[in-house]
Write a structure and sequence with these properties.
Helix content is 15%, strand content 30%. The protein is of the alpha/beta class. It has a single domain, classed as Single-stranded right-handed beta-helix, Pectin lyase-like (Pectate Lyase C-like), CATH 2.160.20. It is globular, with a radius of gyration of 20 Å. It comes from Ceratodon purpureus.
Protein backbone atom coordinates (compact mmCIF):
# COMPACT_ATOMS: atom_id res chain seq x y z
CA UNK A 1 0.00 0.00 0.00
CA UNK A 2 1.08 3.56 -0.54
CA UNK A 3 2.58 5.80 2.12
CA UNK A 4 -0.80 7.31 2.90
CA UNK A 5 -2.87 4.15 2.88
CA UNK A 6 -4.05 2.35 5.96
CA UNK A 7 -2.94 -1.21 6.60
CA UNK A 8 -6.54 -2.38 6.63
CA UNK A 9 -6.88 -4.67 3.64
CA UNK A 10 -7.34 -7.51 6.12
CA UNK A 11 -9.19 -6.92 9.39
CA UNK A 12 -7.98 -9.21 12.16
CA UNK A 13 -10.46 -11.97 12.87
CA UNK A 14 -9.52 -14.33 15.72
CA UNK A 15 -9.58 -17.98 15.22
CA UNK A 16 -12.04 -18.86 18.09
CA UNK A 17 21.25 12.26 40.97
CA UNK A 18 23.55 14.78 42.08
CA UNK A 19 24.88 17.44 39.66
CA UNK A 20 28.32 15.79 39.81
CA UNK A 21 26.91 12.45 38.81
CA UNK A 22 24.81 14.18 36.16
CA UNK A 23 27.91 15.74 34.56
CA UNK A 24 29.91 12.52 34.81
CA UNK A 25 27.09 10.62 33.11
CA UNK A 26 27.10 12.86 30.07
CA UNK A 27 30.90 12.93 29.87
CA UNK A 28 30.78 9.14 29.82
CA UNK A 29 28.17 9.25 27.07
CA UNK A 30 30.37 11.51 24.96
CA UNK A 31 33.40 9.27 25.43
CA UNK A 32 31.39 6.22 24.47
CA UNK A 33 29.69 7.85 21.52
CA UNK A 34 32.69 7.70 19.21
CA UNK A 35 32.39 3.94 19.41
CA UNK A 36 28.64 3.93 18.80
CA UNK A 37 28.44 4.02 15.00
CA UNK A 38 29.82 5.54 11.79
CA UNK A 39 33.44 4.92 12.76
CA UNK A 40 34.59 3.66 9.38
CA UNK A 41 37.67 5.86 9.51
CA UNK A 42 38.77 4.44 12.88
CA UNK A 43 37.80 0.79 12.56
CA UNK A 44 39.56 -1.53 10.15
CA UNK A 45 37.70 -4.08 8.08
CA UNK A 46 39.71 -6.82 9.75
CA UNK A 47 38.28 -5.97 13.17
CA UNK A 48 34.75 -5.98 11.71
CA UNK A 49 35.32 -9.31 10.03
CA UNK A 50 36.66 -10.86 13.22
CA UNK A 51 33.56 -9.64 15.08
CA UNK A 52 31.30 -11.16 12.46
CA UNK A 53 33.18 -14.43 12.55
CA UNK A 54 32.74 -14.59 16.31
CA UNK A 55 28.96 -14.31 15.82
CA UNK A 56 28.87 -16.95 13.10
CA UNK A 57 27.52 -20.47 13.45
CA UNK A 58 29.84 -23.25 14.61
CA UNK A 59 30.18 -24.46 11.01
CA UNK A 60 32.83 -24.15 8.32
CA UNK A 61 31.80 -20.91 6.69
CA UNK A 62 33.29 -21.90 3.32
CA UNK A 63 30.96 -24.90 3.25
CA UNK A 64 28.01 -22.82 4.40
CA UNK A 65 28.61 -20.24 1.67
CA UNK A 66 28.91 -22.92 -0.99
CA UNK A 67 25.70 -24.60 0.11
CA UNK A 68 23.93 -21.28 0.38
CA UNK A 69 24.85 -20.05 -3.10
CA UNK A 70 23.42 -23.22 -4.62
CA UNK A 71 20.30 -22.96 -2.46
CA UNK A 72 19.61 -19.28 -3.04
CA UNK A 73 18.26 -19.67 -6.58
CA UNK A 74 15.24 -21.61 -5.37
CA UNK A 75 14.27 -19.65 -2.25
CA UNK A 76 15.80 -16.21 -2.83
CA UNK A 77 17.11 -15.70 0.69
CA UNK A 78 19.82 -13.16 -0.13
CA UNK A 79 21.24 -12.26 -3.51
CA UNK A 80 24.68 -10.94 -4.33
CA UNK A 81 23.30 -7.50 -5.16
CA UNK A 82 21.15 -5.71 -2.62
CA UNK A 83 17.77 -4.27 -3.57
CA UNK A 84 18.83 -1.23 -1.53
CA UNK A 85 21.44 1.31 -2.59
CA UNK A 86 25.05 0.29 -1.91
CA UNK A 87 26.56 1.78 1.23
CA UNK A 88 29.10 4.43 0.30
CA UNK A 89 31.96 5.91 2.28
CA UNK A 90 30.79 8.30 4.97
CA UNK A 91 31.44 12.02 4.45
CA UNK A 92 34.79 13.20 5.83
CA UNK A 93 32.92 15.84 7.82
CA UNK A 94 31.34 13.14 9.98
CA UNK A 95 33.50 13.57 13.06
CA UNK A 96 34.10 11.22 15.99
CA UNK A 97 33.13 13.99 18.46
CA UNK A 98 29.57 15.13 17.66
CA UNK A 99 27.58 18.30 18.03
CA UNK A 100 25.64 17.84 21.28
CA UNK A 101 22.20 19.15 22.22
CA UNK A 102 20.56 18.61 25.62
CA UNK A 103 16.82 18.12 25.99
CA UNK A 104 15.16 18.43 29.39
CA UNK A 105 11.41 18.51 29.88
CA UNK A 106 12.02 20.51 33.09
CA UNK A 107 13.83 23.24 31.17
CA UNK A 108 17.43 22.61 32.23
CA UNK A 109 18.77 21.93 28.75
CA UNK A 110 19.13 23.56 25.37
CA UNK A 111 15.56 22.56 24.53
CA UNK A 112 12.45 21.34 26.32
CA UNK A 113 11.25 19.08 23.50
CA UNK A 114 12.94 16.54 21.29
CA UNK A 115 11.41 18.07 18.16
CA UNK A 116 13.01 21.45 18.96
CA UNK A 117 16.42 19.76 19.09
CA UNK A 118 15.77 18.01 15.78
CA UNK A 119 14.70 21.30 14.22
CA UNK A 120 18.06 22.83 15.26
CA UNK A 121 19.93 20.35 13.07
CA UNK A 122 20.57 22.01 9.70
CA UNK A 123 19.10 20.55 6.53
CA UNK A 124 21.70 18.61 4.58
CA UNK A 125 23.55 17.81 7.79
CA UNK A 126 26.65 15.65 7.29
CA UNK A 127 28.01 15.67 10.86
CA UNK A 128 27.19 13.50 13.83
CA UNK A 129 24.62 15.11 16.11
CA UNK A 130 24.03 13.72 19.60
CA UNK A 131 20.72 14.66 21.21
CA UNK A 132 20.88 13.77 24.90
CA UNK A 133 17.39 13.38 26.35
CA UNK A 134 17.18 13.62 30.13
CA UNK A 135 14.84 11.35 32.12
CA UNK A 136 11.16 12.09 31.78
CA UNK A 137 8.13 11.58 29.59
CA UNK A 138 8.10 13.79 26.52
CA UNK A 139 4.53 14.00 25.33
CA UNK A 140 5.02 15.00 21.73
CA UNK A 141 5.21 13.74 18.19
CA UNK A 142 8.65 13.79 16.61
CA UNK A 143 9.55 13.75 12.93
CA UNK A 144 13.14 13.47 11.70
CA UNK A 145 13.10 14.38 8.00
CA UNK A 146 15.26 12.84 5.30
CA UNK A 147 17.45 15.97 5.18
CA UNK A 148 18.67 15.58 8.78
CA UNK A 149 20.96 12.55 8.79
CA UNK A 150 23.48 11.27 11.35
CA UNK A 151 21.31 11.98 14.41
CA UNK A 152 21.59 9.94 17.61
CA UNK A 153 18.97 10.07 20.36
CA UNK A 154 20.55 9.14 23.71
CA UNK A 155 18.23 8.61 26.65
CA UNK A 156 19.00 7.79 30.27
CA UNK A 157 17.43 4.33 30.06
CA UNK A 158 14.43 2.80 28.37
CA UNK A 159 12.55 2.68 31.67
CA UNK A 160 13.03 6.38 32.49
CA UNK A 161 13.11 8.24 29.15
CA UNK A 162 9.95 8.10 27.02
CA UNK A 163 8.64 9.85 23.93
CA UNK A 164 4.89 9.24 24.02
CA UNK A 165 1.72 10.18 22.15
CA UNK A 166 -1.68 8.60 21.50
CA UNK A 167 -2.73 8.95 17.85
CA UNK A 168 -4.29 6.05 15.96
CA UNK A 169 -5.16 5.51 12.31
CA UNK A 170 -8.62 6.99 12.74
CA UNK A 171 -7.45 10.22 14.36
CA UNK A 172 -4.28 10.62 12.27
CA UNK A 173 -5.76 9.69 8.89
CA UNK A 174 -3.61 6.60 8.28
CA UNK A 175 -1.65 3.95 10.12
CA UNK A 176 1.67 5.47 9.06
CA UNK A 177 0.68 8.97 10.16
CA UNK A 178 -0.22 7.73 13.65
CA UNK A 179 3.47 7.28 14.58
CA UNK A 180 4.66 8.93 17.77
CA UNK A 181 8.15 9.14 16.24
CA UNK A 182 8.83 8.98 12.50
CA UNK A 183 12.41 8.75 11.20
CA UNK A 184 13.04 9.31 7.49
CA UNK A 185 16.78 10.10 7.68
CA UNK A 186 19.73 7.75 7.21
CA UNK A 187 22.31 6.71 9.82
CA UNK A 188 19.94 7.26 12.73
CA UNK A 189 20.77 5.76 16.14
CA UNK A 190 18.65 5.50 19.27
CA UNK A 191 20.00 4.29 22.59
CA UNK A 192 18.47 3.84 26.04
CA UNK A 193 15.16 5.47 25.16
CA UNK A 194 11.57 4.31 24.64
CA UNK A 195 8.93 5.11 22.05
CA UNK A 196 5.31 4.69 23.06
CA UNK A 197 1.89 4.99 21.53
CA UNK A 198 -0.62 5.06 24.37
CA UNK A 199 -3.77 4.93 22.23
CA UNK A 200 -6.30 2.42 23.63
CA UNK A 201 -5.87 -1.19 22.59
CA UNK A 202 -8.38 -2.15 19.87
CA UNK A 203 -11.17 -4.62 20.65
CA UNK A 204 -11.46 -7.73 18.50
CA UNK A 205 -12.51 -6.95 14.94
CA UNK A 206 -12.01 -3.18 15.27
CA UNK A 207 -10.80 -1.17 12.27
CA UNK A 208 -8.67 1.97 12.04
CA UNK A 209 -7.27 1.38 15.52
CA UNK A 210 -3.66 0.81 14.48
CA UNK A 211 -1.33 2.97 16.58
CA UNK A 212 2.37 3.18 15.71
CA UNK A 213 5.01 4.00 18.33
CA UNK A 214 7.89 4.34 15.86
CA UNK A 215 8.14 4.38 12.09
CA UNK A 216 11.61 3.94 10.61
CA UNK A 217 12.05 4.56 6.89
CA UNK A 218 15.69 5.70 6.75
CA UNK A 219 18.56 3.38 5.82
CA UNK A 220 21.31 2.14 8.15
CA UNK A 221 19.53 2.73 11.47
CA UNK A 222 20.45 1.10 14.79
CA UNK A 223 18.58 0.80 18.08
CA UNK A 224 20.29 -0.24 21.32
CA UNK A 225 18.49 -0.94 24.60
CA UNK A 226 15.32 0.74 23.36
CA UNK A 227 11.66 0.13 24.13
CA UNK A 228 8.76 0.15 21.68
CA UNK A 229 5.36 0.09 23.39
CA UNK A 230 1.91 -0.16 21.88
CA UNK A 231 -0.75 -2.65 20.85
CA UNK A 232 -1.66 -3.08 17.19
CA UNK A 233 1.14 -2.08 14.77
CA UNK A 234 3.63 -0.89 17.41
CA UNK A 235 6.80 -0.84 15.30
CA UNK A 236 6.55 0.12 11.64
CA UNK A 237 9.83 -1.32 10.38
CA UNK A 238 9.00 0.29 7.08
CA UNK A 239 12.03 0.21 4.77
CA UNK A 240 15.83 0.29 4.87
CA UNK A 241 18.46 -1.76 6.69
CA UNK A 242 18.07 -1.77 10.46
CA UNK A 243 19.65 -3.32 13.56
CA UNK A 244 17.93 -3.81 16.92
CA UNK A 245 20.01 -4.95 19.91
CA UNK A 246 18.69 -5.68 23.42
CA UNK A 247 15.38 -3.97 22.70
CA UNK A 248 11.89 -4.66 24.05
CA UNK A 249 8.97 -4.57 21.63
CA UNK A 250 5.47 -4.81 23.07
CA UNK A 251 2.23 -5.27 21.17
CA UNK A 252 -0.60 -7.56 20.18
CA UNK A 253 -1.46 -7.61 16.46
CA UNK A 254 1.12 -7.33 13.65
CA UNK A 255 3.20 -5.36 16.13
CA UNK A 256 6.34 -5.55 14.00
CA UNK A 257 5.33 -4.75 10.42
CA UNK A 258 6.74 -3.34 7.19
CA UNK A 259 9.19 -4.18 4.43
CA UNK A 260 12.57 -3.41 5.98
CA UNK A 261 15.66 -5.63 5.97
CA UNK A 262 16.22 -5.99 9.70
CA UNK A 263 18.14 -8.01 12.26
CA UNK A 264 16.75 -8.27 15.78
CA UNK A 265 19.45 -9.50 18.18
CA UNK A 266 18.81 -10.48 21.82
CA UNK A 267 15.46 -8.68 21.88
CA UNK A 268 12.36 -9.33 23.98
CA UNK A 269 9.08 -9.62 22.09
CA UNK A 270 6.36 -9.11 24.67
CA UNK A 271 2.82 -9.94 23.56
CA UNK A 272 -0.03 -8.12 25.31
CA UNK A 273 -2.88 -9.70 23.34
CA UNK A 274 -6.13 -10.24 25.22
CA UNK A 275 -6.97 -13.26 23.05
CA UNK A 276 -5.34 -13.72 19.65
CA UNK A 277 -2.64 -11.79 17.82
CA UNK A 278 0.44 -11.95 15.63
CA UNK A 279 4.05 -10.89 16.06
CA UNK A 280 4.99 -9.90 12.51
CA UNK A 281 3.41 -8.76 9.25
CA UNK A 282 6.27 -8.60 6.77
CA UNK A 283 5.50 -7.08 3.36
CA UNK A 284 8.16 -8.32 0.92
CA UNK A 285 6.51 -8.10 -2.50
CA UNK A 286 9.10 -9.58 -4.87
CA UNK A 287 11.58 -12.44 -4.87
CA UNK A 288 14.17 -9.92 -6.10
CA UNK A 289 14.05 -7.96 -2.83
CA UNK A 290 16.40 -8.75 0.07
CA UNK A 291 13.98 -7.53 2.71
CA UNK A 292 12.83 -9.59 5.67
CA UNK A 293 12.98 -9.86 9.44
CA UNK A 294 15.50 -12.07 11.26
CA UNK A 295 15.19 -12.65 15.01
CA UNK A 296 18.31 -14.13 16.62
CA UNK A 297 18.67 -15.01 20.29
CA UNK A 298 15.36 -13.37 21.21
CA UNK A 299 12.66 -14.15 23.78
CA UNK A 300 8.98 -14.37 22.84
CA UNK A 301 6.66 -14.17 25.83
CA UNK A 302 3.49 -12.58 27.14
CA UNK A 303 -0.24 -13.30 26.96
CA UNK A 304 -2.79 -14.56 24.47
CA UNK A 305 -2.18 -16.82 21.49
CA UNK A 306 -0.20 -15.50 18.52
CA UNK A 307 1.02 -16.34 15.08
CA UNK A 308 4.73 -15.82 14.52
CA UNK A 309 3.83 -13.99 11.34
CA UNK A 310 1.16 -13.16 8.79
CA UNK A 311 1.98 -12.81 5.11
CA UNK A 312 1.16 -9.16 4.46
CA UNK A 313 3.17 -9.36 1.23
CA UNK A 314 3.21 -12.32 -1.18
CA UNK A 315 6.95 -12.92 -0.59
CA UNK A 316 6.85 -12.17 3.13
CA UNK A 317 10.03 -13.44 4.82
CA UNK A 318 10.66 -13.99 8.55
CA UNK A 319 13.13 -16.24 10.38
CA UNK A 320 13.42 -17.00 14.09
CA UNK A 321 16.75 -18.49 15.24
CA UNK A 322 17.99 -19.45 18.72
CA UNK A 323 14.81 -17.89 20.10
CA UNK A 324 12.96 -18.97 23.24
CA UNK A 325 9.21 -19.14 22.72
CA UNK A 326 6.76 -19.24 25.58
CA UNK A 327 3.61 -21.34 25.23
CA UNK A 328 1.73 -18.55 23.45
CA UNK A 329 2.41 -19.56 19.84
CA UNK A 330 -0.50 -20.95 17.82
CA UNK A 331 0.49 -24.45 16.68
CA UNK A 332 0.29 -23.62 13.00
CA UNK A 333 2.81 -20.84 13.58
CA UNK A 334 2.13 -18.84 10.43
CA UNK A 335 -0.87 -17.35 8.60
CA UNK A 336 -1.32 -16.76 4.84
CA UNK A 337 -3.39 -13.55 5.29
CA UNK A 338 -6.30 -15.54 3.81
CA UNK A 339 -4.52 -15.58 0.44
CA UNK A 340 -3.66 -19.24 -0.28
CA UNK A 341 -1.26 -18.37 -3.12
CA UNK A 342 1.09 -16.80 -0.57
CA UNK A 343 1.80 -20.25 0.81
CA UNK A 344 3.87 -20.87 -2.31
CA UNK A 345 5.94 -17.69 -2.11
CA UNK A 346 6.21 -16.61 1.53
CA UNK A 347 9.36 -17.77 3.34
CA UNK A 348 8.99 -18.55 7.04
CA UNK A 349 11.49 -20.52 9.08
CA UNK A 350 12.78 -21.53 12.49
CA UNK A 351 16.30 -22.58 13.45
CA UNK A 352 17.29 -24.12 16.78
CA UNK A 353 14.55 -22.38 18.74
CA UNK A 354 13.52 -23.56 22.20
CA UNK A 355 10.66 -23.42 24.66
CA UNK A 356 7.14 -24.87 24.60
CA UNK A 357 6.03 -22.55 21.81
CA UNK A 358 8.85 -23.55 19.47
CA UNK A 359 7.68 -27.05 18.66
CA UNK A 360 7.43 -27.88 14.97
CA UNK A 361 4.49 -30.21 15.62
CA UNK A 362 1.44 -28.77 13.90
CA UNK A 363 3.31 -26.07 11.97
CA UNK A 364 1.92 -25.27 8.52
CA UNK A 365 3.45 -27.47 5.84
CA UNK A 366 4.75 -24.46 3.92
CA UNK A 367 7.03 -23.25 6.75
CA UNK A 368 10.63 -24.44 7.17
CA UNK A 369 12.79 -25.98 9.88
CA UNK A 370 16.05 -24.58 8.54
CA UNK A 371 19.27 -26.48 8.02
CA UNK A 372 22.63 -24.98 8.99
CA UNK A 373 23.21 -23.83 5.42
CA UNK A 374 19.74 -22.33 5.07
CA UNK A 375 20.00 -20.46 8.37
CA UNK A 376 23.53 -19.09 7.87
CA UNK A 377 22.70 -15.89 5.94
CA UNK A 378 20.13 -14.80 8.52
CA UNK A 379 22.28 -15.07 11.65
CA UNK A 380 24.85 -12.26 11.53
CA UNK A 381 25.24 -8.63 10.55
CA UNK A 382 25.87 -9.66 6.97
CA UNK A 383 22.09 -10.11 6.59
CA UNK A 384 21.74 -6.32 6.74
CA UNK A 385 25.14 -5.51 5.20
CA UNK A 386 25.94 -4.42 8.74
CA UNK A 387 29.64 -5.12 8.48
CA UNK A 388 29.76 -1.88 6.49
CA UNK A 389 27.94 0.41 8.93
CA UNK A 390 27.12 -1.14 12.33
CA UNK A 391 29.52 -0.54 15.21
CA UNK A 392 28.20 -1.94 18.45
CA UNK A 393 28.70 0.25 21.55
Amino acid sequence: MGATAMKTSKVWRPRAASSHLFVMFYITVLLLFSDLQLSHSTRSMSSKNSRLESEAMPSTMEDVESDFLSWIASVGAKSKSSSLAPITRLPSSVKAVPQVYYVDVAGFGNFKTVQEAVNAVPDGNSMQVLIIVKPGTYRERVTIPKSKGYITLQGAGKNVTFIEYDMNAATAGSTYDSATVAVFSDYFVAKDISFKNSAPAPPAGAVNMQAVALRITGDCAAFYNCGFYGSQDTLNDDMGRHYYKNCEIVGSIDFIFGDAQSLYKDCTLNVNAATYGSVTAQKRESSNKNTGFSFVGCNLLGSGQVYLGRAWGPYSRVVFAFTFMQDIVIREGWHNWNVPDRQRTAYYGQYKCSGPGATELGRVAWSHELTDAEAAPFLTLSFIDGQNWVTEP
